[in-house]
Amino acid sequence: MYLLSTCDVLVTSGFSTFGYVAQGLAGRRPWVMPRPSPWEEWAEGQAPAEPPCRRAPSVEPSFHSPSYYDCAARRDVELDKVAPYIRRCVDVSWGIQLVNESSTRW
User: A GO BP term, please (predicted)?
Assistant: First the structure.
């Protein structure tokens, strides 16, 4: 993981713990290769996602199993709708990621 973090450019596959840790250590915004969800079967010759790689919106790693339950409201909430600094992950539609939109240097 440390060796990955020393790379100039980081391409991370979806659901990659090694890639997320390396991204966090390096403080770099990685390129992410999305992959089908674990319950979707991949078939030989299947076309890759379009585009094949997307730039992550933040240097922060994705959190793939957030709790959507709001104790005060006693119901589920869409976290990316109630907090301006939370966005959906590039590789996992149900995951979240911290994003600093005011920063232009990333």
Answer: xyloglucan biosynthetic process
